Amino acid sequence: MKEGYLATFLVALYLILLLAIGIYTRRTSENTREDYFLASRNFGTWILLFSVIGTVASAFTILGFPGQVYRTGLPNFGSIANSAILLIPITFATVGMRLWYASKKFNHITPGQLLNHRYNSNYLGGLSSFLMTFWTVPYLVLGGLGSGLAIESLTNGLISYTLGSGLIIGVVTIYLILGGMRGSGYTDLIQGVLLLSLMAGFTAFVLKTLGGLQKSFQSAVDANPDLVSRGSEALFGTEMWLSTLLMMGLSVLMYPQVILRIFTGKSLESVKKMILLFPIGMLILFLSSAILGFVGAAEITHLDGDAADNIVPLLINSLAPEYIAATALVVILAAIMSSLDSQSLSVSTLISEDLLRNTDQIKDADVPKISKLLTVGLMTIVFLLTLVKPGSIFFLVEFAFQGYALMFYPVAIGLYWRGCTEKGVIAGLTFGFVGLIMFQSGILPSSWTLGFMPLTPLLILQIGLVHLISHHTEKPPKKTIDAYFESFENAW
Amino acid sequence: MGERFTRYGWDKNALFYPTTPLEKLLVLLFLALVITHFSEILSISDSQHLIYGFLPLEFAYNLLHAIISIIFILLVYRKWPEETVSSE
Q: In which element (H, E) is residue A285 found?
């Protein structure tokens, strides 16, 4: 990155814009739980769409994924992007919509409250919220860490790692406290639009600079013909291909930040339109990232290992004038911050609504205040962890996607099968969590997965377990089940 | 609603069972999309063939597959079950 002054200026401008949005949303907010956590369930199609895209897209989408294409080739597009484009909208249209119907009908703020009510349980909500929090917190630390690294690198050291991550975490904390879900949603709208438009713009610019699509692709193929086919790469074997499909498809709806976003949908039509447009946004993002990673392999060679994750900023920096290259930092920050804010809000929502509100003598009106304090505390811990960079965080992040995916079936089945019981779901959630930890920590031998990710065999066993336990345990009250299924009459 | 509840076993009215021709078609299309996601069944996963001399065959296939997946979602959107109760 040239001198870094322009990038520093753009970052400052960008953060001021986000703070201004936070201040604006405070003026339109009410001090109620439903407003702070779910923006009074009033998000229309566009806010819903871009906030879900911003939440789902992360540093992996615009840095890690192109890096993977750079290292192992274009089949990553088929494996990762196609899985996301095919399965995520289907899970949204089926399970996601049923969650939306039920949350709206019974005024549930969290998925944990929905599960407790559906199964007449006192524990299920707490368990699901604990698991969602467990898998989400490491990502928060990763977001803080990634933002610090990106700012230091792309401002040419003008802003240090510590100051950079502190600034990002601080700004996110402020606009969350000011506007809650509304602040998060409106800033995500801006960040989502920037992310999509700038990534598409960068791709068009790079292709034009390299002589067009045909010439740049030919150069990339000439530089490394192995990048166009699966070859002997284990990542692209049928077992891993299937595992990736399941992991990408089933995990995203289990992000607490995505479920809470869906709960904010104003009407059936706004959620439906979001589901329709979401895969188009994902296609634009993943296609741009794949093309940049692929053509970058011919332009910038010899990036080994994790260094390949810098291919997009390096490519843009090498081809574009400074005023374009500096905006790359804004794109990276948009991807990181739109995930960071929604993850932070969702974790504080789950803790305050599902873990604290039920156990203490807390008035409903005080819950948003408690959540704000939790947000400050959580983000302070995140900042401290970004300074320490504990290895265990990276260990958890490596398989968090599988952890989310192993929550999908136990959560979803009760929306389709009346016979499912509390104990069946508890057994399924616990089995998936413990089994995954045992595989990843080496207690169970990796040979038992038969070449699949641990997720695949665990999912099959989990499904059997949920049904077995449910068949032999007491069902929840029929009246409650009827009330749920009545609200699903116009759902897939 | 009462007779739809069974204490044990599958409740076909509660689970998503394709009963109408449209539902059956959508389930079949979805299964076809899942199966064709595995490009090795068409023996193109190891191909280094370039369409028009520059576009990798498997990449083009995956791109087409993604576009068809989006068209499938359009179908799901257009044929959404009729709303019988207000969701507003």
A: helix A268-299
